[in-house]
Amino acid sequence: MAEANGTATGVARDVVDTVLGFARTLRHAGVTASPDRVEAMVAAIAHLDVLDPSAVYWAGRLTLCGGPDDLDRYDAAFAAFFGGEAPRMRTSSGPERERVVQSAPVQTTEGGEDGGEPADLATRASGEEVLRHRDVGELTVAEREQLRRLFALLVPAVPMRPSRRRRPGPHGSVHAARTVRRALRDGGEVGRLMYHRARPRPRRVVLLVDVSGSMSPYADALLRFAHAAVRARPASTEVFTIGTRLTRVTRELRLRDPDRALAASGSAIPDWSGGTRIGEVLKAFLDRWGQRGTARGAVVVICSDGWERGGTELLGEQMARLQRLAHAVVWVNPHKGRLGYEPLTGGMQAALPAVDHFVAGHSLAAFEELVEVITDA
């Protein structure tokens, strides 16, 4: 009996972990999926058959979505996370058979013995969770295709900054003119102070993506992340590729479809899988774009492994120059996610003193962490 209870508890934990992972995917897709809604989904699944995709789909849709705008995002997230089409409303001639179990956990079985399905929803979701932490440079073609669906759900939030313009608010500085006008309407008595506060504006985000030969295993994932960032805030996001020259690909990445956007970007990049001269290219960026305002007060994200064929002194000088202009400098190195990695290359040694945040960019989970770093920068 104790063994059975332990098995049931373990399976229940798997179900809860699956729901939490799905909720995390929904939040990156732009659906709020607040903790109380997640708790409501777990409670709903406790009275349903967790092996029925349709039951899980509708339990999540009815509890996690807060409005009509969430429905399409929910469908896309469900298909990507559980690896299948989102079930639709079924019509039947007779009453539908009631499917109720006493508890959410039901022990899953391996496919093949009883002619059942080869894998249930929890197993597929567990596979998605493992895929989130896999190095994108080591994935198979099928795994890359699966990961592309998850990348399409990323909605990077944009950091905000206060502006000089102010708007009415319940707190902040006293707005003298509005307070006096309100008092005149009330017969000359100041019965209530009126306030105004700074109106936040999106801070510009600039991504410099290394497309040299050493970064080719990660270039596709990095550009997909850049596409998600441009799609989230087209007016305040700029994307450049760096290698032996600087190429602006913001316009190409504004295409809605990720595959079309990456194809257009690939056609516009003349130095794909070439060498790396980060110092020279960074100087070209600062001379033409950064000094004129693109990098001023922005969050600048450099995605590179730091292999520099040019002089490291020039790179150090330009990084210091960039740090003086930018609000924050983030360096993304896919190799940082590997066990035992140390930034020993000359390029990294020269750049790190001017870097505010040094993060990995080797997996979907690492990109989700990068989203938080950019938002909080």
Chart the SSEs and their pairings:
Elements: H1 2-28, H2 35-45, H3 53-64, H4 69-82, H5 121-132, H6 141-151, E1 160-169, E2 173-174, H7 176-185, E3 195-202, E4 205-210, H8 216-232, E5 237-242, E6 246-248, H9 250-253, H10 258-268, H11 278-294, E7 299-303, H12 312-325, E8 328-332, H13 346-351, E9 357-359, H14 364-376
Parallel strand pairs: 4-5, 4-7, 7-8, 8-9
Antiparallel strand pairs: 1-3, 2-3, 5-6
Summed up:
This protein has about 375 residues and is an alpha/beta fold. It has three domains: about 1-85 and about 120-130, no CATH class; about 165-200, no CATH class; about 205-375, 3-Layer(aba) Sandwich (Rossmann fold), CATH 3.40.50. The protein is about 45% helix and about 15% strand.
Q: Any overview of this molecule?
A:
The protein is α/β, with parallel strands linked by helices and 377 residues long. The protein has 14 helices and 9 strands. The protein has helices at 2-28, 35-45, 53-64, 69-82, 121-132, 141-151, 176-185, 216-232, 250-253, 258-268, 278-294, 312-325, 346-351, 364-376, and strands at 160-169, 173-174, 195-202, 205-210, 237-242, 246-248, 299-303, 328-332, 357-359. Helix 1 packs across helix 5, helix 2 runs antiparallel to helix 3 and helix 11 (278-294) packs parallel to helix 12. The chain is flat, with a radius of gyration of 25 Å. The model is unreliable at 89-119 (pLDDT under 50).
